[in-house]
From TrEMBL:
InterPro entries on file: Flavoprotein-like_sf (IPR029039), FMN_Rdtase-like_dom (IPR005025), NAD(P)H-dep_reductase (IPR050712)
Gene3D superfamilies, per the entry: 3.40.50.360
Highest taxon of source: Bacteria
Pfam families, per the entry: FMN_red (PF03358)
Protein known as: NAD(P)H-dependent FMN reductase
Family designation: Belongs to the azoreductase type 2 family.
Residue ranges of every copy of the NADPH-dependent FMN reductase-like domain listed in the record: 2-131
Length: 187
């Protein structure tokens, strides 16, 4: 079975973005295995740590390397990506650069009206940088911009319940799976 990894840009326990990752894991359990990376345990990036990086950094890079594809699922903070996500990507952009050539799909949930659009534009720029060079699913027709998250998830730790959003998610994730398969065949 295909193995995918989710990198979630929020550390909040009841994060909508984390709950979107869990929704994807549950909904597609018969198509792929989804691990959710623990980026909250990564140290702040510091070049001085690079000679002997903490074990958690090595484990994070290994998880990316072992995955057939990666979902980056993030909120928008101040019109950009949260620092914790940038920190994780910075760690993944060094040494063996595990994101290089890796199929990636971007998604996000916000409580506002533009559904992380500005964060995703920055994120796409970061993922294209020379240190990262991820193989990102093109945005046309594939953007997952979940607006007004508060109205679309169950209470507490609840998963995504909005039917229209779920139908659109199913379509776009199926396209990502085809994208991942096509990259595997091309290898
Ligand atoms: C936000 N939020 C926010 N929302 C948005 O649409 N655009 C923005 O620029 C920001 N900026 C921002 C900065 C900071 C520091 C915080 C804490 C929040 C609101 C954000 O969308 C909301 O808190 C989401 O619920 C966060 O995602 P999770 O934690 O639910 O995944």
């Amino acid at each position: 079975m295909m193995k995918l990894l989710a990198i979630v840009g929020s550390l909040r326990k009841q994060s909508y973005n984390l709950r979107l990752a869990r929704t994807v894991r549950e909904r597609f359990a018969d198509r792929f295995e989804l691990r959710i990376a623990d980026i909250g345990s990564l140290p702040l990036f510091n070049e001085d740590l690079e000679d002997r990086p903490p074990e958690h950094v090595a484990a994070f890079r290994r998880q990316i390397k072992e995955a057939d594809g990666v979902f980056v699922i993030t909120p928008e903070y101040n019109w950009s990506v949260p620092g914790v996500l940038k920190n994780a990507i910075d760690w993944a952009s060094r040494e063996d650069r595990p994101l290089s050539g890796k199929p990636v799909m971007v998604m996000g949930v916000s409580n506002g009206s533009v559904g992380t659009l500005r964060a995703q534009l920055h994120l796409r720029q970061i993922l294209a940088s020379s240190g990262v060079q991820a193989d990102v699913l093109p945005p046309a027709g594939n953007e997952v911009l979940v607006r007004t998250g508060g109205e679309k998830f169950g209470s507490g730790d609840g998963l995504l319940t909005d039917d229209k959003t779920l139908a659109s998610l199913d379509r776009k994730i199926s396209k990502f799976l085809e994208f991942v398969e096509s990259r595997k065949e091309g290898r």
